[in-house]
Amino acid sequence: MADDEPDDPSGAPLGLRERRRQETLHLISDAALELFERRGVAGTTVDDIAHAAGISPRTFFRYFATKEHAVFVDDEQAELVMHETLAAIRDGAPVGTALESGWLRLLDDFADDDALRERVLRTRRLIAAEPSLLAIALQRDEEHVGTLSAAAVAATGDESDALTARALVSIVATTFRLAFDEWARRAEADVAADVREIYLELRRGVTAYAAQLLR
Predict the structure, then answer these.
(1) Rounded to whole angstroms, how far apart are CA atoms 192 and 185?
(2) How far apart are CA 187 and CA 199, in angstroms?
(3) CB 175 within 8 A of CB 203
(4) Would you tell me the crossing angle of helices 46-53 and 14-39 to the nearest 10 degrees?
(5) Which residues of 82-111 are buried (b: 16+ CB within 10 A; e: fewer)?
(6) Predicted local confidence at residue 68, as pLDDT
(7) Beta carbons within 10 angstroms of residue 198's beta carbon
(8) Tell me: the pLDDT tens digits for 83-117?
(9) What value does the mean pLDDT take over residues 3-10?
(10) For residue 171, what pLDDT band results from cuts at 50, 70 and 90?
């Protein structure tokens, strides 16, 4: 088992440190995913995950609060898109436009990454079978909606519009989540599908429904 990683590798450039951080995150997450698939969440310990990842339990807790959280890891591109989306909202871009622009970029990357698509399917199967993982997935979604909604309110300076901002963010986020749900359903049935196309189809339906409400 490897020794604990230093908190700040001496002389390592920021880019190198971030790559090391991402590599360790994914190493731990991959180990957790495989063990959960074989043993279930209840049958897996942090020590088991740390051993499989070749790290110490102390290093594990430097990256994840619990064993369940280890399944959920955002890659560099997802984190970059989130930061850019927040920056665009804070700079005054329409919230819906900023959200959709960022997430569509992620969908384009997703379409080109076979390994990522397979991992997403594996993770979704586990979430469906393990209530503790479902709870964390829902919590993460809620945190993302809260962060983006707060940025939208801060950008307008109108606290009274917080509920509207949250509704808009929730609508866009839910539409993307439903697109992934449908993509996963088709993928499990071995039916070819593209998440971006599914999303755009859903968006057209949601837009048409919103237009009906405004009549």
Answers:
(1) 10
(2) 15
(3) yes
(4) 120
(5) beebbebbeeebebeebbbebbbbbbeebe
(6) 97
(7) 21
(8) 888 888 888 888 888 888 888 988 888 888 899 89
(9) 46
(10) confident
Report how far residue 51's alpha carbon sits from residue 44's, in angstroms, rounded to the nearest whole number. Answer: 11
Percent helix, percent strand, percent coil in the chain, to nearest 5: 80, 0, 20
At 109, which amino acid appears? D
Residue 103, CA atoms < 13 Å, CB-side half-sphere: 22
Per-residue pLDDT of 115-153, as tens digits, reads 989 999 999 999 999 999 999 999 998 988 888 888 888
Residue 149 token pair? 């909604």
The Cα–Cα gap between 148 and 172 comes to 11
Side-chain-facing half-sphere of 13: CA atoms under 13 Å: 3
Tokens of 17: 């440190």
Q: Of the candidates 175, 184, 193, 198, which has an alpha carbon nearest to the alpha carbon of residue 100?
A: 175
Burial (CB count within 10 angstroms: exposed 0-12, middle 13-18, buried 19+), residue 42: exposed
| 212/147 Cα distance (integer angstroms) | 30
Give dist(CA 149, CA 168) in Å, integer. Answer: 8
Per-residue pLDDT, 14: 55
- Predicted TM-score (pTM) above 0.70: yes
- Please report where in the chains the tokens 């740390």 appear, as a residue: 50
